[in-house]
Amino acid sequence: QSTHARQAPRFLPTLRETAYAGKRTALKQAGETVTSLVGHYAKQAESGALPDEQARASAMKALNDLRFDGDNYYWIQDSSPRMIQHPIKHEMDGQDLSDYKGVDGKNLFREAADACAKGGEGFIEYMWPKPGKTAPQPKISFVKRHAKWDWIVGSGVYVDDVEEEVAATRNRVLMAFVLVAGLVMAGGLWAGRKFAKTMVGLSEAAAGLARGDVGVAIAATVSQDEMGRLSASFREMTESSRAQAGVIERVAAGDLDVEVAPRSAQDVVGLALQRAVGSLRDLVSEADQLTAAAVE
After folding, report:
1. Which of 1, 105, 137, 224 could form a disulfide with 160 if both were Cys (CB 3.0 to 4.6 A apart)?
2. What is the pLDDT of residue 183?
């Protein structure tokens, strides 16, 4: 496997981390908003405006009907952990969840209780069945505890879309790098063969360039005859190939600010490399737009 192929997707972990951070931010905002709603009903009970039982029932009714970002819902459990209310799986209401095991073997409700015991809130990750999917999908949830009632309110979102977009972006980036590398190697092979037929003295260097060895050295000459001009042109070509290879190395390391300057309007490889780098910048721009959309 080439160095380019290994290094090309270096920015993808950042894309994944940023997208997940956006999901967590949106989840926390949604969770804190609904916990404030629970606090509102708790204050009504505390002030005597509502009986405690009625205040709890009103809060449960509000959360049971509430949705965010589409069909995402809120569940209520306590620290035992015991399910107080699940708006989708009503058969779980009132159940002791101490020995619960999900499809991934995790007790997500125990993890929710542990997270709230440590800091009053937190994030948990687990697998959960998703409508329209045959297999369980990854999900993250934000959980926050209302201490007076010992209610832990949880809300979650699926993150399989993040992984799918990261995988699609990785495939597009790798394909672009393969095309760039192929253009440079094809250009070197074509030039190497042409010069090898014209001048036997340069055949070894041409063969090296054809193999992708842009480090081949061509001795400088002051001769102005046909041989001297041929040698000078070949040296200029190898230097240009080294420069183009340097551009690819920088792009492979994640530097998309590199500038590609074709030598002329006939520089097919340089122009193709310039377009390829532009395409990579567009891909990163698409990734940034995905991240922005996830945060919103």
Report:
1. 137
2. 74
* pLDDT surpassing 80 at residue 7: no
276's CB contacts (< 8 A; 6+ apart) are 176, 179, 180, 183
Give the closest residue to 241 by CA, choosing from 186, 176, 280, 178.
Answer: 186
Q: How far is CA 31 from the centre of its chain?
A: 24
**DSSP string of 169-216, one letter each residue:** HHHHHHHHHHHHHHHHHHHHHHHHHHHHHH-GGGHHHHHHHHTT-TT-
- Count the neighbouring beta carbons within 10 Å of the beta carbon of residue 278: 11
Distance in angstroms (rounded) separating the CA atoms of residues 242 and 216: 9
Per-residue pLDDT tens over the stretch 77-128: 999 999 999 999 999 999 999 999 999 999 999 999 999 999 999 999 999 9
By the 10 Å C-beta count (0-12 exposed, 13-18 middle, 19+ buried), 128 is classed as middle
Whether 98 contacts 111, CB under 8 Å: no
pLDDT of residue 84: 98
Please give the pLDDT value at position 229: 66
Rg (C-alpha) for the chain, rounded Å, is 31
Burial state string for 213-232 with b = 16 or more CB within 10 A and e = fewer than 16: ebebebeeeeeeeeeeebbb
